[in-house]
Specification:
3-stranded antiparallel sheet, about 35% helix, about 290 residues, single chain
Length: about 290
């Protein structure tokens, strides 16, 4: 790597100071960054001359970001491709956990998979790239549904309707779906066990964009004979989702970083009959939420 230019580094430090959304004065910049007053004056004058900083009309002596910074942000946003970035991150996750990793987005009541990468142990899935599946039957879909406003959820899933079932374990009741989405919001991850495929379990985490909105979900799908529980795959999903979110420009607030209570259950619905074999059906759906 070549030599860095101190003046450019300082100019960038000044611009990044405005990421908090507030106007700043030259004296404020001097104190916050610990730079010489003369240097700050020259750098602010130069940035203002190029339009990267403009005078804040309601705060005399203060500056805010100018239009050129908006153009730079737009240019960066336009070159971002969720499918491309998603596939790159999914490939890293698949290599780490040896299972199939996917990235999906929500389209109404369906999920559309924009990236799928097989791991060392590929599984036969219905979720190929471009395929649409009922959101309520998949971990990625439930993760995305959990981020919807209540009014939008009620519009898509009015009380009393019967939802399409892909397997005997699929959720078919909006009321039960709503209850599970509340659990997902609390836990920060979504799971499904034999709900879209009788031989597959899945875990998913949220992907946020630069505004903090959940725009996609990253999931890992595992053959049930290799599934030993949520904790086996949680870290792969949360780390992968965080990496992809960072690539999309998301900056996680420090105040939102909290460790999840290890005693709280955040597992998939599993339905078992008296022999201990996985079964299904709406009648036992309530018991399934307490089974691992």
């Amino acid at each position: 790597m070549g030599r860095t230019v101190p003046a450019v580094m300082r100019a960038l430090d000044i611009l990044e100071l405005f990421l908090d959304g507030a106007p700043h004065s030259a004296p404020d910049i001097t104190v916050r960054l610990g730079l010489p007053r003369t240097s700050v004056h020259e750098l602010v004058t130069t940035l203002a001359h190029r339009g990267y900083l403009v005078a804040a009309p309601d705060r005399p002596g203060n500056y805010r970001l100018g239009v050129p910074t908006f153009h730079l942000g737009n240019a960066f946003a336009e070159q971002m491709d969720l499918a491309r970035e998603g596939r790159a991150v999914a490939a890293r996750v698949a290599a780490r956990c040896a299972e199939t990793a996917q990235v999906a987005v929500l389209d109404g009541t369906n999920v559309v998979y924009v990236a799928t990468v097989d791991g060392q142990h590929p599984v036969r899935l219905a979720s190929s790239v471009g395929r649409r599946l009922p959101a309520h039957c998949t971990a990625a879909g439930k993760m995305l549904l959990s981020a919807l406003p209540e009014s939008e959820f009620d519009l898509h899933y009015p009380p009393g309707v019967t939802l399409l079932a892909m397997t005997a374990n699929s959720i078919t009741s909006p009321e039960l779906l709503s209850k599970e989405l509340a659990d997902i919001r609390r836990c920060g991850i979504a799971t499904e066990y034999r709900e879209s495929n009788p031989d597959v379990a899945c875990i998913a985490g949220p992907i946020r964009d630069s505004s903090g909105a959940v725009v996609a979900a990253l999931s890992v799908s595992v053959a049930t004979q290799r599934w030993t529980g949520v904790e086996q795959f949680r870290r792969y999903v949360t780390d992968g989702a965080a990496e992809l979110a960072a690539r999309l420009g998301y900056r996680e607030p420090l105040s939102s970083v909290a460790e999840h209570d290890g005693g709280e259950r955040c597992g998939p619905r599993q339905v078992h009959d008296e022999t201990g074999q996985a079964g299904g059906g709406e009648d036992s759906a309530g018991d399934a939420e307490n089974a691992q």
